[in-house]
Design a protein that fits this description.
Elements (H helix, E strand, L loop, with lengths): L6 E11 L10 E2 L3 E3 L5 E5 L1 H12 L6 E4 L6 E4 L9 H6 L1 E3 L7 E3 L3 E3 L2 E3 L7 E5 L1 H11 L8 E5 L2 E11 L5 E2 L4 E2 L2 H16 L2 E4 L2 E4 L4 E7 L12 E2 L2 E2 L1 H7 L3 H4 L2 E5 L7 H8 L4 H17 L2
Parallel strand pairs: 2-12
Antiparallel strand pairs: 1-13, 1-18, 3-4, 4-10, 5-6, 7-8, 9-13, 10-13, 11-12, 14-15, 16-17, 18-21, 19-20
Helix pairs in contact: 4-8
Length: about 300
C-alpha cells in the first residue's frame, strides 16, 4: 500500500465528570459549556486540554521553549532550534516560530483533535465545598475562633463525551521548513505510541483522575482525510445511535476500512452494537489499527 494521501481517524466515546473548567467568577467555578440549537447547554473538554494530557502521557521529551519579544510583550513559543527530529510533540501538533524582522516559521498540526462534547445537557448541578477540616485544625492549634471556613461552589456534570482524532499519516515525520523526513520506522513508532496513549488516556483535575479511555471507538485508515464519524457518533439515553453510524458506513470506501471497538456493558444497547456493527473489544480494535498503520509505513 503506497499512497501519499492517507489519513487515520477515530471517533471516541468515554464517560467522565466535570473535566474542564473555564474562568471562575468569585468563588464559583464554571464548566466550559456551549449552547446547541435545542437551547440546551453542553459541557465540553477543550481540544487544548486533551492535547495537554496527550503530551503529558506520551513519555517523550517535551519540545524546548523560549520567550520571543521584549518587555511585557514577550510571546512564549517553541525554540527556534526545536525540530520535529527530536520532539514528537511538534511533529504531531505543529508550531509557529516568530522572530523580529523575519517571516514566521510555521508547520501546521498533523494530529488534530475536536473538543470532547458531553452527550447529555448540563442541568445546573453544583457541588458545595468548604475547607472545614483545615479551618477546624487551625482554630484548635491557634485558639483563634475568628478564623472562618472558606466556601466555594463548582458546577458538576457526569456524562458520556464524544471527540475525534485525525492524523495525516503521510505528513508525520516530514517538515519542509528544514527538509526533515524521518525514516518510516520512526514515523510508525510515533503514531503507535500516540494510539497507546489514546487507549488509556486520563485527565487529572481537582484531586480526581478522570478516565478518558474509549468505551466506544470507530474509525480506521483511509485514503480520505475527513473526520468521517465526527458528526455521526451520538449517545442518547445511554445507547449508541446505530442508525446514524450505519448511514455513514453505506459508502464502501468507508465501510471496507472501518473497525469498531467497545466495552461490553458500557451502553444499554451493547448487544445491538455487537450484532449490528460487528464490534470487537477496544484492545483488539487498537491492535488491528496499529497493524494498519505499520503496513502503511512499511509500504512507504
Amino acid at each position: 500500500m503506497i499512497q501519499d494521501n492517507m489519513g487515520l481517524t477515530v471517533t471516541i466515546v468515554f464517560q467522565a465528570s466535570s473535566a474542564n473548567y473555564g474562568e471562575s467568577l468569585g468563588n464559583v467555578a464554571f464548566l466550559k459549556k456551549l449552547t446547541r440549537g435545542d437551547g440546551q447547554q453542553y459541557s465540553y473538554i477543550s481540544r487544548q486540554a486533551i492535547r495537554y494530557n496527550i503530551v503529558q502521557q506520551l513519555g517523550e521529551k517535551e519540545a524546548t521553549l523560549e520567550a520571543e519579544g521584549s518587555g511585557d510583550k514577550k510571546v512564549i513559543q517553541f525554540a527556534k532550534d526545536a525540530s520535529i527530529k527530536d520532539f514528537s510533540e511538534i511533529d504531531f501538533f505543529g508550531y509557529m516560530k516568530t522572530e523580529k524582522g523575519t517571516n514566521s516559521s510555521i508547520r501546521s498540526a498533523r494530529v488534530r483533535l475536536s473538543n470532547a462534547i458531553s452527550q447529555e445537557p448540563y442541568e445546573g448541578d453544583t457541588d458545595f465545598l468548604t475547607n472545614m477540616s483545615l479551618a477546624q485544625r487551625i482554630r484548635k492549634a491557634t485558639g483563634d475562633n475568628t478564623i472562618r471556613n472558606s466556601i466555594a461552589q463548582s458546577e458538576i456534570q457526569h456524562s458520556y463525551h464524544v471527540y475525534t482524532l485525525t492524523i495525516d499519516l503521510d505528513q508525520i515525520g516530514i517538515d519542509d521548513n528544514d527538509g526533515t523526513n524521518l525514516d518510516a520506522s520512526e514515523k510508525n513508532r510515533r503514531v503507535a505510541k500516540l494510539l497507546d496513549v489514546i487507549q488509556y488516556l486520563y485527565r487529572d483535575i481537582r484531586g480526581r483522575r478522570e478516565d478518558l479511555k474509549p468505551l466506544f471507538i470507530i474509525g480506521g485508515v483511509y485514503d480520505i482525510k475527513n473526520p468521517v464519524f465526527e458528526n455521526a457518533v451520538k449517545v442518547k439515553n445511554a445507547k449508541i445511535d446505530i442508525e446514524s453510524i450505519q448511514s455513514v458506513l453505506d459508502d464502501p470506501r468507508v465501510e471496507d476500512n472501518t473497525n469498531i471497538g467497545f466495552v461490553n456493558g458500557a451502553f444499554d444497547n451493547s448487544q445491538e452494537i455487537k450484532n449490528k456493527l460487528n464490534a470487537v473489544t477496544v484492545a483488539k480494535f487498537m491492535t488491528d489499527l496499529k497493524k494498519k498503520v505499520a503496513e502503511y509505513y512499511e509500504g512507504n
